[in-house]
Amino acid sequence: MISQGLFFSLATYLFGSVPFGKLIAKRVASIDITKRGSQNIGATNVARELGTVWGVVTLFLDILKGYIPITLYISYASQTTDCYSIGLSAVMLSALIGHQFSIFLRFKGGKGVGTATGIYLALSPISCLLAAVLFILIVYKWDFVSLGSIVSTSAMPLLLAFSGKEQSLIICSALIAALIILKHRENIQRMLKGEERKWQERRPHASRSRSRSNSSSE
Question: Which DSSP string do the residues of 129-176 spell out, in sequence order?
Answer without folding.
Answer: HHHHHHHHHHHHHH--HHHHHHHHHHHHHHHHHHTT--HHHHHHHHHH
